[in-house]
Amino acid sequence: MEHITLSFPASRTFSGKALAGVVGSGDMEVLFTASEGDTLSIDITTSVDNSTRRWNALFDRLNLTNGLPAGTLIIHDFGATPGVARIRIEQVFEEVSHA
User: Fold this and answer.
1) 3-class SS of residue 67
2) How this protein is processed and modified after translation, per its record (predicted)?
3) Is 73 exposed, middle or buried (0-12, 13-18, 19+ CB in 10 A)?
4) Which residues are registered as beta bridge partners of 99?
5) What's residue 19's pLDDT?
6) 2 and 53 in contact (C-beta within 8 Å)?
7) For 1-27, how does the pLDDT look when each residue is reduced to its tens digit (9 = 90+)?
8) How many C-beta atoms surround the C-beta of residue 53 within 10 A?
9) How many angstroms from the chain centroid is the CA of residue 69?
10) Running DSSP on this structure, what letter comes out for residue 11?
11) Are 20 and 41 in contact, with CB atoms under 8 Å apart?
12) How much of the chain exceeds pLDDT 70, in percent?
């Protein structure tokens, strides 16, 4: 198991909390809590060692397409593919955008 902590500048502000996925499904779970500020703090626990570059690349792409919201993102990854990871992250951002 690897623990990764990342931080990215935020360009959007939401309110509320959201959850997508279930780690027990053999996939991943993403929890987002919105906050005021200008930073997205990310805490990842993953079963895939040496994956920091992959996570950085994923968040760089998300930041370029839609910008990232301020808050805290907690990810419990059980080896999900980058495509599934992106879907789960976008799901929580979409949910809080409608809160």
Assistant:
1) coil
2) Covalently binds the prosthetic group of malonate decarboxylase.
3) buried
4) none
5) 93
6) no
7) 899 999 999 999 999 999 998 866 667
8) 8
9) 10
10) -
11) no
12) 95
Beta strands 71-77 and 39-46, pairing class: parallel
Nearest-angstrom CA–CA distance, 26 and 93 = 22
| CB-based contact 56:29 (threshold 8 Å) | no
What digits encode the pLDDT tens for the residues 35-56?
Answer: 999 999 999 999 888 999 999 9
Which candidate, 86, 34, 24, 33, places its Cα nearest to that of 58? Answer: 86
Contact 31, 92 (CB under 8 A): yes
The structure tokens listed for 14 are 């939401």
In this structure, what token pair is assigned to residue 8?
A: 């990215």
Please give the angle made by the CA atoms of 61, 1 and 49, to the nearest 5 degrees. 50
Alpha helices in the chain (DSSP H): 52-66, 82-97
Reading the block at residue 57, the tokens are 């690349």
Residue type, 50: N
